[in-house]
From TrEMBL:
A single Gene Ontology CC term: nucleus
Region (Disordered): 1-20
Gene3D superfamilies on file: DNA-binding pseudobarrel domain
Taxonomic lineage of the native organism: Eukaryota, Viridiplantae, Streptophyta, Embryophyta, Tracheophyta
Compositionally biased intervals (Polar residues): 1-11
Domain of life per record: Eukaryota
Keywords: DNA-binding, Nucleus, Transcription, Transcription regulation
This protein's name: TF-B3 domain-containing protein
Amino acid sequence: ATKRSPSGYSSDENDEDKNPSFEVLMKDSYIKQDYMHIPKYFYDHILESHSTTVLRYDGKPWFMEINMGKRRWFKDG
C-alpha cells in the first residue's frame, strides 16, 4: 500500500513550498492507453489555468499535460 498525506500535500519535511502532491504505486491497471488518472481528492489542487505539470520519478522530470474534463488525468506530453 502507498502512504499518502490526507491533505494531498507533500509530507517531505524538506519541501519548503509544500506543493500539492500524491504518491501512486504504479500498476498496469492505472495506465489506460497513454493516460494516468489522478485521485479525486487531488482535483481541488489543480487550477484550470494550468495545463501542464511535472511528474518526478527517481529525480527525473516527466512533463505531462492535464486533461481538465469531468475527470482529470495526466497525458503524456
